[in-house]
Amino acid sequence: MRTRHSMDKASPRLNRYFDVNGWLFVAPAVLLIAVFMVYPILYSLWMSFQTGRGMKMHFDLTANILRLFSDPMLGLALYNTMIFFIVQVPVMLILALLLATMLDDKRVRFRGLIRTAIFLPCVSSLVAYSVLFKSMFVQDGLVNTTLLDLGLISSPIPWMTDPFWSRVLIIIAITWRWTGYNMIFYLAALQNIDKSIHEAARIDGVPAYGRFFFLTVPMLKPVILFTTVTSTIGTLQLFDEVRNIMTSDAGGAAGPSNSALTLSVYIYNLTFKFMPNFGYAATVSYVIVIAVALLSLLQFYALRERT
Amino acid sequence: MKKAILPRALAAIALGSASLFAMTAAQAKEITIWCWDPNFNVAIMKEAGAIYAKTHPDVTFNVVDFAKADVEAKLQTGLVSGVTDSLPDIVLIEDYGAQKYLQSFPGSFEPMTGTVDYSKFAPYKVALATVEGETYSMPFDSGVTGLYYRKDYIEAAGFTPADMQNLTWDRYIEIGKTVLEKTGHHMLGLDPNDAGMIRIMMQSGGEWYFTEDGDLNISGNAALKAALETEAKILQSGIAKPAAGWSNWVGTFTSGDVASVITGVWITGTVKATLDQENKWGVAPIPTLDIPGAVAASNLGGSSWYVLSSSDVKSEAVDFLNEIYGKDVDFYQKILTGQGAVGSLMEARNGPAYAVADPFFGGEKIWQNFADWLAMVPSLNYGIFTNEVDAAVASQLPPLGKGGSVDDALAAIEAQARSAIQ
């Protein structure tokens, strides 16, 4: 009753900030976020200015940042990550968009079944599917044997022992895993487009590809932006697939010639495989943060609403 | 009536667990151990625990089996965070990483210099766990290497077991080409992402990625250069079947696909697990590098036990290791016969199990051979950055296989290693 009383008196706008009940309701959530999100982020920022080995760390404002610029492994990891990003994200999103458009057509039979089949990979566990891919793509695995028996290739493709093919394999794997996931977003958005718009265009004589490029795609723009940003973040954080398909445990490289070394795998190596240097690993993790922020800004800019 | 059962059952469970806690509090002598191979060091540690428990009934053992990478990741996280509750009392660490842990986590491991008589162990195992005069490990297994070969395949290609003795690498590749031509079997399985073979060859040439003082030793390292040249020859000759990762590599010989395996003695158990291949295997010394001073013996892997200083039962843990691993010669006979573990306690080698002829290998006295080769392994300082340089070396192997220049590879390794070891 007291709060009701005070609410009548104070200005309603300011009152929001002094409402004890409101704060009590959000307190558990805020507390959890503070402990498990805000504190680790701030602490990792603090850690990124520490350098040394294992427990013998000391503060140094510039050491890690200078090391970033003279680190060939970081350069390679950035290069690999960018290749995966530039090749895989567009391929996957275009594929997802085409599949969604096709499955939106009422004339296609078994739509539910096909939709489920394409979506199913992204329900599978990252590690489980990586291990399966690994066993399928080894030198005398299922894929090479099938291709050889069909006469499509004359000698086995070195999926895991050649730098070029190992990247191809990673791209195939993540495309298989995530295309269905993005397709679902497009399908949902397609169903929100008013059918009468398409019908009007059809009556006006706009051909099918014209309706796709000048009606469907522009109206899907917000969803395309959303899937581009989430896929970018996902690709920049690529870890499970590379770690499970490409890395052998015994002090080896991430893929032949480190051809599949991504930023996340490099951070893992710095922390757990190499001389434990949590400070430098934290600095490299901020490279991902900055890269994601820059790329997302770029994408927001490219897909902005023009008025 | 029925409703009353649940609270009563709960009360019973609570009482039961309370008395259980009381019991463990009274004993409180459980030693937790982390290690990684269920057929090898896990089984061996359980055996050691069973022997110790006979004379010390108040001590119980909890041997936890992880993958090796997980043991290392959990250990590093626990040590850095300072949350020592989650750490075990005894942990197994691979020898390549020993100095890294001892030097970057000072005070976290318990020195045993005062308790254990280290003069009884192979000197190279003691040296690699010693920092500033204190030794921290209970030396465990050795990774002395051998050349395991399929007698039936090489005989089918027109060679005899005598041809497999005292090989040079060039001769080994020559035999491999003939075997591949006549039998269709590759000579060996090789993972081009893994530098293990390079380490074997380099150590047999008496050098390592680092000098005795711990400085980087790449561009002037004759053994490393010869090793890279040999690996390039093997890759280019086509005698190697490419493998991707550990289990795929193991599969190349357990499936009966390849004609030979060059690796550490700890693989013996895996080779012997292929029962249908009994009597088909022989063991010879590894081929020799073509540089002065190179020997036909090397080392790959091997590990030692460490007691954590944070442990509340560390005196029991040290006593346990010293009683069993430091003194019990019979125990070493048991683990040699059972798991194929060649320990580094020198007097264990005079025991009966080492003199036994192994029927799986057609009656060869392979353990005596391994013990002899062990004495020839060049002693080295593995330094604290072996994993970093190893990753640099591994990334240069695929270009070498395609005919790349060895000098370019050495320069690239040097550059990548320099930046990684700061």
From TrEMBL, chain A:
Any one GO biological process: transmembrane transport
UniProt xrefs under PROSITE patterns: ABC_TM1
Main location: membrane
Keywords on record: Cell membrane, Membrane, Transmembrane, Transmembrane helix, Transport
TM region(s), chain numbering: 21-46, 76-100, 112-132, 164-188, 209-229, 278-303
UniProt cross-references to InterPro entries, sorted A to Z: ABC_transporter_permease (IPR051393), MetI-like (IPR000515), MetI-like_sf (IPR035906)
A Pfam cross-reference name: BPD_transp_1
A single cellular component GO annotation: plasma membrane
Record's subcellular location: Cell membrane
Domain spans labelled ABC transmembrane type-1: 78-299
Membrane-topology annotation of the record: Multi-pass membrane protein
Keyword check for Cell membrane: yes
Domain of life: Bacteria
Signal peptide: none
Family: Belongs to the binding-protein-dependent transport system permease family.
Name of the protein described by the UniProt record: Lactose ABC transporter membrane protein
Automatic annotation (TrEMBL), chain B:
Compartments it resides in: Periplasm
Organism: Roseibium suaedae
Domain of life: Bacteria
Signal peptide: 1-28
InterPro entries (alphabetical): Bact_solute-bd_prot1, SBP
Short name of any one Pfam family annotated for the protein: SBP_bac_8
UniProt entry keywords in alphabetical sequence: Periplasm, Signal
The protein's name in its UniProt record: Lactose-binding protein
Family: Belongs to the bacterial solute-binding protein 1 family.
Cellular component annotations (GO), alphabetically ordered: periplasmic space
